[in-house]
Every structure is written in structure tokens, then in C-alpha cells.
Amino acid sequence: MYGNISIIDKSSKDPLEGEDAILLAEFEAKIERGEKIEPNDWMPKEYRRQLIRMIEQHAHSEIIGALPEGTWITRAPGFKRKMALMAKVQDESGHCQLLYNAAETLGKPREQMINDLILGKSKYSNVFNYPAPTWADTAIIAWLIDASAIINQVTNSRGSYGPYCRALERICMEESFHLRYGYDNVVTLATGTETQRAEVQDALNRWWRPIMHFFGPPDVASVHGEILMKWKVKMASNDDMRQQFFNQYVPKILELGLTIPDEGLRKDPETKKWEYSDPDWAEFFRVINGDGPCNKERIAVRRRAEEDGRWVRAALNQPSAKYTVPLS
Ligand code: FAQ
Hints:
Layout: H1 21-32, H2 45-70, H3 79-104, H4 110-118, H5 135-156, H6 162-190, H7 194-214, H8 225-230, H9 238-255, E1 266-267, E2 274-275, H10 281-288, H11 295-317
Antiparallel strand pairs: 1-2
Phenylacetyl coenzyme A binds next to helix 2, helix 5, helix 7 and helix 8.
């Protein structure tokens, strides 16, 4: 299952070196009791660093995540589906605002986060680096990627950092609508004409592997999982969340008469765990490090939005000044 990935050596430098032992013990006891950490509470530097990294990546994923489906707004089949898709894309952009706000409570300014995104210094979810060539792709994204996001976010909304957990709760409520919308679209296609069924099956075949990757590398290769789980930022490991996805969604996919493009997929009757073929972890690492089918295109869109919107932000900050609208 681990195929071509290497297992992480976790014996490197202690990230807690130099921390005050008493404050650290109080902090960990508070987390152990299930209390929330709030922005002005004492926290170890590594907790702050990890949270900024993770929440920032999550925020970037929402704004970049709006792009594959966003390209279908002008081509959605019918007025109602167009309206629903517009609302969904707008929601995803709203989620990024909530998440940037949560990350800002830890001291990193939003502008710096956006700069890091467009300079390729910080990551966002692997899945949004793939194209959505047909309407059926948008259906699979809205159903199964939103489902995956909900599994992750509902679990982590019970975590330790107050602002992040509250943002996740609100996001999950909206994502639940997205999931219903996506499911409705998949059901329509899967119970439609032969062409529609073939289209949705093709889309599932294209997205299955990126969805496997979505939950992160296998636990043995997870760099941050151990400390994040200790501090209850992540409330389950990457593999456990992936298993939860299999448990909940494999039966639903099969029920629709669709096939899952993995001949090795089976549930071990004794361990009750799903086994699956190596989903090509080399591809995962390539994509998250900038070499996926759409990475350059996605970043270029965000860079353009930043540049085109600069005068609007400046005008909002200084309404009395005069600004010239740049002509492009
Ligand atoms: N994509 O040590 P771990 C959505 C990186 S929101 C890219 O296991 P960790 C809504 C990881 O950053 C989707 N990179 O990492 C929507 C690290 O690299 P680094 C986003 C990934 O943090 C739906 C390295 O690999 N959700 O979809 C990925 O413990 C539809 C080692 O990995 C979140 O961000 C990946 N999939 O666990 C929008 C949730 N996985 O930073 C539109 C919050 C791992 O050292 C349409 N995040 N990496 O350079 C998390 O729960 C965690 O960060 C994980 C990764 C589980 C993603």
C-alpha cells in the first residue's frame, strides 16, 4: 500500500526546545481536559506555527477550490443548476474568508498569506490541481470532495483551537448543502441516459485517485500528524479519515451502479479495514509540490485576481484618495 513513498524519520530536532516547561504542562493539561485554546492564551511556538500552516493551507484550498467548479457556471445545464453552482462557489470563497480570519488570530497577516500562495510558498489541497472537463466532474467534486472535506472538518471541529473549530462548524453546515447538491447531480447522471452514466463513471475514474490522496499521505509518512494529534488539532489520523470515507461512501457509490476504479479495493472481514491498491503516492507528492496538471493555471488565476483587485483594496482602505482604474 505504501508503494513508492518513504517512511518519515521522526527523530529530528525537538520542536519544543526552549519552551517553558511549566507553561507547556499547563497548556497540555488544558487540551487534555478538552478546553479550547484562544488567541490570547499562551501557546508553544510550534502549536502556533502548525496551526498557521494548516489553517492557511485550508483557506487557500477553499479559494483555489472554487476554480474547477467555477469554470462551469457559464455552462451549467439549466437555470436552477446554474444558480445552485453560483451559490456553492460563493460559499467556498466565503469559507476562505472565515479561515483567513482564523489564521490571522495567530499573527500572520492575510496579505502575507496570499503572497505565499501566489509565490508557491504554501500549499493547498492536491485535488484542485486537476481539471474538470465535463459537467459530471463538477458533480463528483460537489459530492465526493465535499464529503471528504466534511469528514475531515466535522472531526477536527472538536479540536483544541477555538477560532478554527468555530470556523469549521459553520463551514460544515454549508458543505452539507453542497454535498446534497452534488449527490443530486450524480444521481441524475447515474440514472440518466447511457451517455450520462458513462460521463459520470469517467469522472469518478478520473477523481478516485486524487480523492484517495486528499486525506494526506499514509500515517507512516505523515510529517505533522503525531504532534497535531497530541495537541488535538487533528482529531484523527490521515488513514483513519480515509477509512471513514470508504465506510460511508463506497456503499453509496456502488448503490448507484457505478464501479470503483480499484480492483484491489476490499474490506478485510477480520480487521474491518478497507484495503486498496497503491494510489501512486509519487503523483501525490508531485502535485502538492507544484507539478500537477493545473497548478500553474490555478496560481495564475489567483495572481491576476490579486493584481486586478489591488486598486479596490487600496480605495477601500483610503476612500478619500483618488485612484486610477488600471486598464488591462
Ligand atoms: N493536499 O504531515 P502530513 C475543501 C501535505 S477544503 C496538499 O500528513 P498534515 C473544500 C502537508 O501539508 C480541503 N498537501 O500533513 C472544498 C504536508 O506538507 P508541508 C482542504 C497535502 O497537515 C470542497 C505534507 O503533505 N482541507 O476541499 C495534502 O498533518 C469542494 C505531509 O503531510 C484542509 O486543508 C493534500 N491533500 O495533514 C472546496 C483541512 N495532504 O505543509 C471547493 C485541514 C497532506 O509540511 C470544492 N488540513 N499534504 O509542506 C488537514 O486536515 C491536514 O493538513 C491534512 C494533512 C489532513 C490535509
